[in-house]
Design brief:
Largest sheet: 5 strands, mixed
Structural class: alpha/beta
CATH class: Alpha Beta
CATH topology: Transcription Regulator spoIIAA
Number of helices: 5
Radius of gyration: 14 Å
CATH superfamily: STAS domain
CATH architecture: 2-Layer Sandwich
Strand order of the largest sheet: 1-2-3-4-5
Number of domains: 1
Oligomer: single chain
Strand content: 25-35%
Helix content: 40-55%
Length: 139
């Protein structure tokens, strides 16, 4: 699977990591697993690490269906969800900007793109310098 997630309840965030070729089916499965996870809750911040993406499935209609499904979950809660995409490469940055555009006009989701790990963590209100440091601090 090219998408995994880890809920970090002590930090109030969900760390999502993409590896390799990004497929919408993998993203959908991961999101479904997240939505059913007992530690998932409205308003959780999301840190989406796109640094290891090597390719992207081009399916605009599929992406819109996926975003609509996510919006149903996020909008129904009355909570605002902050999603920060870490996209250090040209490919990952293009992917992140495309996803961010798909959230435009949906007030329940605030999505941002960063090309620096420390800046992404700062936007999420975390004091860590790197994702490795954050993931090591999971107590």
């Amino acid at each position: 699977m090219s998408v995994t997630f880890q809920i970090l309840p002590g930090h109030g965030i969900v760390y999502v990591r993409y590896e390799g070729f990004s497929r919408l089916d993998d993203t959908m499965r991961a999101f479904d697993d997240y939505a059913r996870h007992p530690q998932s809750h409205p308003g959780q911040k999301h840190l989406v690490d796109l640094s290891n993406v090597t390719g992207i499935e081009s399916d605009f209609v599929g992406l819109m269906k996926l975003q609509a499904k996510k919006a149903d979950i996020f909008l129904g809660t009355g909570e605002q969800t902050l999603i920060v995409y870490y996209a250090p490469s040209k490919l990952s940055y293009e992917m992140a900007k495309f996803i961010v555009r798909s959230w435009e006009g949906i007030g329940a989701v605030v999505s941002l793109v960063q090309q620096c790990e420390e800046q992404a963590l700062t936007l999420l209100g975390l004091p860590h310098q790197s994702f490795a440091e954050l993931l090591a601090d999971t107590d």
